[in-house]
Amino acid sequence: MTLTAITKTSAIIIVIIAIIAVAGGVLLLTQQPAQPPSTTTTTTTQISTTTTMTTTTTTTTTTTTTPVGSTITIGNVTIRVPEEFAKFVENVKTGKVRVTIYFGHALNPEERDSFIKVIGAFEQEYPGIDVVEKRYGGMGELQSAVIAAASLPPSQRESLVGQAPDVFNWAHDWIGWFADSGYLVRLEDYIGYDAVDDISQNTLPSAMSSVTYLGKTYGLPYAGEALALYVNTGLVPNPPTTFNVLQTLMEQFYKPSEGKYGIAGQIAGQYHTNPWVTAFGGFYYDDVRKELGYLKPETAEGLKFFVANILRYMDVSDLGNDYQRRLFGEGKTPFYISGPWDVKYAVETLGVNNFTVVPLPSINDRIPKPWSGFRTIYVSVMATAGGKERTYASILFALYIALDDKAILTLVNELGYIPVKPSVADYVRTNINTNPLYKIVLGFYEQLGKSVPMPKDANMQKVWGADTYLQAIWKAYSDAISSGKSPDDAVQAAIAQVDKALSDAYNDISAKIKK
């Protein structure tokens, strides 16, 4: 693997191109990126990883989406692909063909170290491919680099090979915007529908759904994330399985005069309250129907439930992630609602054997369903510059990250990533006693099965703006507590703001939604 820095000259080129390419005013995403955990715990696996190419002869005249009966095998998954792609895989395995691709990322240092191991294993498996790492300082830099190059006409991209990513990773919620803008490669165009079907058979349905847009596949998921319930097992040995039990425990531990609270969790807006809204049949935005749910009575009911039964037991002096997780890490609350990005913190503060993660408990027959996000490996249209071999190499790299069990287990073992490949989840379940982190991983994996994929079309960039209006609800509660009112009075003050906040959100966002 090769590392390239973003030089001053390159940076100037990228900035100039970005200004030209996005002069129309592209709105950058404002949602905070997930910060997944890391851990030094490792586990030796016995999963074999081989990649082979076979070609079969067919005598039928039935038309299929794959021109010739060729297959490749990655890990334990055999994929039907066009003969040309299979031949390319064979050639890069032997080193007969040499090609360089550029992998862009904004990974934190812990994640980068693990990805370097995975990239090294990929290059050992396919010595004909050199993966050059391109590091960016954050979401905005990565996004701008992709857009700047991908926005150019195809004839102008070739001169930028090496200046922008061919393949990159981020959450799945970029897909709608990027696909509509023509920034991403459609996998079916190069490996066929049969290949995508084979991949789907070996991936969680919700994960594959997250990368499917208007009937095409624009990336491959390799890990998932969703809000779930962290439980300090030193304070609560038996995690609650129903909301009634959870509420009883929150009431028991809520002693604000002693600096102790019933539950903690970051509250920014729609992302953090979506589980309770969906439990009552509401929603904020449906990207299939292009419909806003702010005026639905079920949405208001779920939000009011959250105020009366979750916010009621929290320390609202600071609803930010760092403060809220410290309440959990310091033993000031037995429960914490967050995602996999806080596993490393919990391990470092409480110890991996002193907490667990379970799905959010049901409210009688109502199931809270958080938004699920899926870490995705994308192939940019930059990969089509410089010849088809670069496109094929970029797609093969994406396939390896998403399907090779040993690669995925490296990310699971070292970072606590939540697999979306059932065979890896089965391995974790079978070997749960070999790695204390595995019980945490399985808790999140179970929550993924009780989640709804985050909307991914371009309208979501406008939908996030509704968070501004929800702030009035939390502020009403916080102001009441600060003025000395009881939690019950504060709940009533906050609930009184719900309908107006949702109405204001609708009036603003509805005018910006494209049908």
Name some characteristics of this structure:
seven-stranded mixed beta sheet; alpha/beta; globular; 515 residues; 44% helix; 18 strands; single chain; four-stranded mixed beta sheet
Question: What's the short story on this structure?
Answer:
The chain has 515 residues and is an alpha/beta fold. It has helices spanning 8-21, 83-94, 109-125, 139-150, 154-157, 175-181, 188-200, 205-210, 243-253, 270-279, 297-309, 321-329, 343-350, 388-403, 405-415, 422-430, 438-448, 460-463, 467-482, 487-509, and strands at residues 2-4, 53-55, 70-74, 77-81, 99-105, 129-135, 167-171, 212-213, 216-217, 220-226, 228-232, 264-265, 285-286, 291-292, 335-338, 355-358, 371-379, 452-453.
Unreliable runs, pLDDT <50, ≥5 residues? 5-68
| Global geometry | globular
Q: Say how many strands there are.
A: 18
How many DSSP helices? 20
Radius of gyration: 24 Å
Helical/strand content category? alpha/beta
Distance between the termini: 44 Å
Give helix % range: 40-55%
Strand content: 5-15%
**Major sheet: size, sense and barrel closure?**
7 strands, mixed
The average pLDDT is 88
